Amino acid sequence: MSPSIDLPGPRPAIVARLGTAQTLAWASTYYLPAILAAPMARDLGTTVPTVLAAFSLALVVSALVGPRAGHTIDRRGGRPVLMITSLVFAAGLAGLGLCQGLPGLFVAWVVLGLGMGSGLYEAAFATLVRLYGRQARSGITGITLIAGFASTVGWPLSAWLESRYGWRATCGAWAALHLLLGLPLNAWLPRVGAGPAPAQAPAAPAAEPSAAASPTPAPRDEWRAMLVLSWVFAATLFTATALATHLPRLMQAAGASVATALLVGALIGPAQVAARLLEFGFLRRLHPLWVARLATALHPLGAGLLLLVGAAWAPVLGLLHGAGNGLLTITKGTLPLALFGSAGYGARQGWLMAPARVTQALAPVAFGLVLDRLQGHALWVTAGLGVSALAALMWLPTKTAPR
Prior knowledge:
The protein is an all-alpha fold. It is 79% helix and 0% strand.
């Protein structure tokens, strides 16, 4: 019997280790270009879009790596994969800090893309599912609660290090943190035996009967559900990345003042954390499919209010968009678990998220072009993507949801 069967549920210490390691991983990769792209471009004699293109390449690489990394976690558990990923992150960041031209820049980001594909949320979620099966839902929420502060920690720290020591030393500092903090945290994760994860984990606690009791879809329904979730994740991640890149400009194009645009950005982070706390409490009693439907509806609602009523509703968009993002981050882990079970979870997550990583890579440039052409009306595009994601979720077989 696999060791995952013997564990009673996600242990707070394990969730804390994974959450802290995820905070480090996100802060030193995904949130790094926002602070270091400009000084990198100046020092290397190139442009900021070129640096961002290298980052986009890393996202494409992560999409290619994800399914294989997830399959390995299914077979051998997350501990060895995440330990290797810590070394890959350290190597990529060290290479980034030492690069002297564009070839070195792109190679370093390719290495970081390998780490991102095997060491961000999907890998952490798969690690918990390999250990706890269907009981991993609360642990997935816990990881996102901790790592939700990655930008809060990462941006100020990167900015402070860059201002005092330069961008190269900043990359070196993050590389050292992966060796001194991330690697030990991942090494302290439980070992599991080699072999496939059990198809069914222990029965879920009484507080989560709906997530445990939902039946596994038939093969045809499973393929349909896989396609639906791939589209939902791709559409919503495109919107999240587009707004993260262009939010101040987009708000001003929609008629908001500079101060209001900054306020909207400031509201997104707290709204994400608040929504995750809500999921950890009240929404935890709902099937993840209903939580996902709620999450995909929030951005279109906020965008519609701003576009139809006026720019005074821009802060409401910030709150609703942030809350939706916070819930979607969780449902990307919990919804596949509820629909398909724990067997093969890691590999399935890799395939489900691969299209999303590609759209994420394209979002900054693609939405920038849309914004140039449509100005504030570009929000209709993101709202339309949200509505399409909601419609796709409504199309899923209702038999997978609780009565």
